[in-house]
């Protein structure tokens, strides 16, 4: 596993590492795989793509691992995935960036995704899956007709999510009244476009800092508009970390009053009921309650363990084949079935969240969106 253990993303990296360690510990305690014990070899990449490539190369060539768990950082996954194909060692990435597995995916047309990296896989809901699921939830549960998206033109994930959201809205018969670029500075022109479009709701899908600024500006200019957001909206205030995140509404939002009564979507809820299942053993092992970022590491380790079992060998190419053919894997949030065209789960639940009274509240811990089939 390579992860960001001592830089900006250290908290998520360490949480994912603990999830993987606990899954491996439990497997080893129950006899390992065919009587063989599992060893987790870890490298700290400090949120640096070059270090990630170096770490993957060392793990694949010098350590002789059967598979590598990748970090949550998109740039690292994008840099490593072609190296995985060259090394013929599978990468199970914790990133949400679809392009880690589908490098030619076009933002304006997320589906079909284009060719797949043969040795790269995603373990948690991707950026486009999260956005599409949230759009499905909005059109299913809300009585709103006119939507807009506000995205960052220099952020590929933001563009992918905006278009994925728009595609579902249009297919539902609702209206995408505006698709607006989020500017670096003054938002006057963008706000005018949103106002003229007569929107009921706006999906803001940039980075946390830009999301906060945009939410404040829109709430002041268009108080009637419903604010919708992406996974970057989960930004607890400093000092609210730790076990508080395991309690619904316990974590205070950095968005403040500007985003009160807004909605957003993220891969895993901070109080997902499944976390309670692993909490006792997690507390014994690490002395703290598990946070939501533990889940991707837990599932990634479990996915590789199951692939080795099904392959009957730790040969990396055979493990890759088993990963690609994986069905009915009991992931944290439900059954995981690998899609051969995208190397991610076919259907995967997501968490629908709200900001109420300045705190995060889980509206629906596991919402499963299944897009209608085209005749």
What would you say this structure looks like, in words?
With 375 residues, the chain is an alpha/beta fold. Residues 239-249 have low confidence and may be disordered. The longest helix has 20 residues, at 10-29. It has two domains: 2-125 and 274-342, Response regulator (Rossmann fold), CATH 3.40.50.2300; 128-266 and 350-367, 3-Layer(aba) Sandwich (Rossmann fold), CATH 3.40.50.2300. The strands form five sheets. The protein has a seven-stranded mixed beta sheet, with helices on both faces. Strands 3-4-5 form a three-stranded parallel beta sheet, sandwiched between helices. The chain has helices at 10-29, 49-62, 74-87, 127-141, 156-171, 188-197, 208-221, 273-286, 294-311, 316-324, and strands at 2-3, 43-44, 68-70, 91-93, 120-122, 146-151, 175-181, 201-204, 226-229, 262-266, 329-331, 334-336, 338-339, 344-345, 350-356, 359-367.
């Amino acid at each position: 596993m390579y992860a960001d253990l001592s830089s900006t993303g250290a908290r998520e990296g360490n949480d994912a590492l603990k999830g993987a360690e606990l899954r491996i510990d439990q497997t080893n305690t129950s006899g390992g795989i065919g009587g063989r014990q599992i060893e987790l070899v870890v490298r700290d990449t400090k949120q640096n793509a070059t270090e990630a490539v170096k770490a993957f190369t060392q793990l694949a060539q010098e350590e002789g691992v059967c598979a590598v768990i990748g970090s949550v950082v998109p740039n690292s996954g994008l840099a490593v995935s072609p190296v995985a194909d060259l090394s013929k060692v599978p990468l199970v990435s914790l990133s949400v960036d679809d392009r880690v597995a589908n490098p030619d995916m076009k933002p304006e047309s997320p589906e079909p995704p284009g060719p797949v990296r043969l040795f790269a896989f995603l373990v948690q809901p991707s950026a486009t899956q999260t956005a599409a699921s949230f759009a499905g939830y909005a059109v299913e549960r809300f009585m709103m007709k006119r939507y807009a998206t506000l995205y960052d033109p220099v952020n590929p994930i933001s563009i992918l999510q905006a278009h994925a959201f728009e595609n579902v809205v249009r297919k539902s018969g609702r209206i995408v009244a505006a698709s607006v670029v989020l500017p670096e500075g003054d938002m006057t022109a963008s706000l005018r476009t949103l106002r003229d479009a007569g929107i009921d709701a706006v999906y803001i899908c940039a980075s946390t800092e830009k999301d906060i600024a945009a939410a404040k500006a829109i709430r002041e200019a268009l108080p009637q508009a419903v604010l919708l957001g992406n996974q970057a909206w989960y930004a607890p205030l400093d000092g609210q970390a730790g076990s508080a995140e395991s309690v619904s509404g316990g974590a205070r939002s950095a968005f403040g009053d500007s985003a009160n009564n807004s909605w957003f979507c993220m891969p895993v809820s901070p109080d997902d009921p499944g976390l309670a299942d692993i909490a006792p053993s997690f507390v014994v092992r690490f002395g703290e309650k598990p946070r939501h970022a533990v889940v991707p590491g837990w599932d990634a380790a479990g996915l590789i363990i199951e692939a080795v079992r099904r392959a009957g060998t730790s040969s990396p190419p055979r493990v890759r084949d088993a990963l690609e053919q994986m069905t009915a894997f009991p992931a944290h949030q439900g059954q995981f079935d690998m899609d051969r065209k995208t190397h991610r789960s076919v259907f995967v639940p997501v968490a629908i969240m709200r900001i109420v009274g300045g705190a995060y509240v889980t509206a629906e811990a596991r919402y499963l969106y299944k897009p209608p089939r085209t005749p």
